């Protein structure tokens, strides 16, 4: 039987009706059963300030403590101005410090970008890859998930209504499970 793996999910949007949050929730259902997905909320994080490295606010400490025990990290993010939303970048920065104590190092990761636009958040997806390379996170290369036309993607209960996208995301999560085992092994 496959080993249970804890996956911290970071959603790059704070919007109540966020397509990316809907995607993150849908992925919990589509993932292989040994992957235990849990969204780690980033809306309560204050802005990162290096002055507070020696005496970090409670919200930073709690966030780091939520990421540390995870076997892997899944990023589900919109694109803002061809990059990653500031709230997600802030969470990444908070987790990366103090220097030498990053909570991200070595954790396998995967990225899904979701946009109402046709390009599916390609710019955000690839800007994020740049940060994750520096953070020493091995990122799933294939398949890539740039999910466009999101306004037509979810039904009233938040499930992915398009069978093709549902199948693709099921395969994506299976590939991520395989990637986690490969990098852990
Ligand atoms: C956007 N949006 C957007 N979309 C895109 O495909 N490429 C982009 O560069 C941008 N830039 C951008 C900047 C800002 C400040 C906002 C508020 C929005 C549109 C964006 O994809 C759309 O609002 C999504 O619905 C955001 O994702 P959630 O909140 O639905 O998950």
Structural class assignment: alpha/beta
Q: Count of helices?
A: 5
Assign the CATH superfamily. Flavodoxin domain
Query: Which ions, cofactors or small ligands are bound in this entry?
Result: ligand FNR
What's the rounded overall pLDDT mean?
Answer: 97
| CATH architectural group | 3-Layer(aba) Sandwich
Which regions have little confidence, pLDDT < 50, spanning 5+ residues?
none
User: Which strand order does the major sheet show?
Assistant: 2-1-3-4-5
- Taken together, the total number of domains comes to 1
Helix content range? 25-40%
- Supply the CATH class: Alpha Beta
Q: What is the CATH topology assignment?
A: Rossmann fold
Rg, please? 16 Å
Q: What summary fits the major beta sheet? A: 5 strands, parallel
- Element string (H = helix, E = strand): EHEHEHEHEH
Strand content: 5-15%
| N-end to C-end Cα span | 16 Å
Shape: globular
The number of E-state strands comes to 5
Describe the structure.
The chain contains five helices and five strands; from the N terminus they run βαβαβαβαβα. The longest helix is centred in the last third of the chain and has 22 residues, at 163-184. It has helices at residues 19-30, 58-67, 86-96, 122-134, 163-184, and strands spanning 5-11, 35-39, 72-77, 109-114, 145-147. It has one domain: 3-Layer(aba) Sandwich (Rossmann fold). The chain has a five-stranded parallel beta sheet with strand order 2-1-3-4-5, sandwiched between helices. It has 185 residues and is an alpha/beta fold. The site of ligand FNR has 14 residues, from helix 1. Ligand FNR is lined by residues 13, 15, 18-20, 78-82, 115-117, 121.
């Amino acid at each position: 039987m496959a080993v249970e793996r804890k996956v911290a999910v970071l959603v790059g949007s704070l919007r109540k009706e966020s397509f990316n949050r809907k995607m993150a929730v849908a992925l919990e259902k589509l993932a292989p059963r040994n992957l235990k997905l849990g969204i780690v909320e980033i809306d309560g994080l204050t802005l990162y300030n290096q002055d507070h490295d020696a005496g970090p606010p409670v919200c930073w400490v709690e966030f780091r403590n939520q990421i540390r025990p995870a076997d892997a990290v899944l990023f589900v993010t919109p694109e803002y101005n061809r990059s990653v939303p500031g709230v997600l970048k802030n969470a990444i920065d908070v987790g990366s410090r103090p220097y030498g104590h990053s909570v991200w190092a070595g954790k396998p990761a995967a990225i899904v970008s979701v946009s109402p636009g046709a390009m599916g958040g390609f710019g955000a997806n690839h800007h994020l890859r740049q940060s994750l390379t520096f953070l020493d996170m091995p990122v799933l290369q294939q398949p890539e998930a740039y999910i466009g036309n999101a306004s037509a993607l979810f039904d009233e209960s938040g499930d992915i209504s398009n069978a093709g996208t549902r199948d693709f995301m099921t395969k994506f999560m299976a590939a991520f499970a395989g990637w986690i085992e490969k990098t852990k092994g």
